[in-house]
Amino acid sequence: IEFSSIVEQIRSTPIEQNIVASDFGMPQYAPPVAGLRTFIEQLLAAGFSERDVRAMCQANPARLLKLEAA
After folding, report:
1. What is the DSSP letter of 11?
2. Using CA of residue 42, residue 30, residue 23, residue 28, what is the dihedral sign?
3. Which listed site, 23, 43, 52, 59, has its alpha carbon 20 to 30 Å from 13?
């Protein structure tokens, strides 16, 4: 899938409904840390704020998994 399609899909929904995940680490892809770093850099370059990226990478998954502090 093209990155521009991912950006379009994210922008079509509230940030609170998006979670950034990957399949990096599989032999045909970059190592997980490097791949996710690149993806995050691309999101920032596409105009997403650091707050939006943190929400999609940290806060939203934590909320979904009920890992938030009480």
Report:
1. H
2. positive
3. 23
Nearest to 6 by CA among 45, 50, 58: 45
State the pLDDT at residue 23.
83
- Report the sign of the C-alpha dihedral through residues 59, 63, 65, 68, in that order: positive
Of the candidates 23, 22, 15, 11, the residue with the CA atom closest to the CA atom of residue 59: 15
Task: For tokens 């409904």, name the residue.
Answer: 17
Q: What Cα–Cα distance (Å) separates residue 33 from each residue in 14, 22, 23, 37, 70?
A: 26, 10, 11, 6, 29
User: What pLDDT digit, counting tens, does each position of 5-60 carry?
Assistant: 999 999 999 999 999 988 888 888 889 999 999 999 999 999 999 999 999 999 99
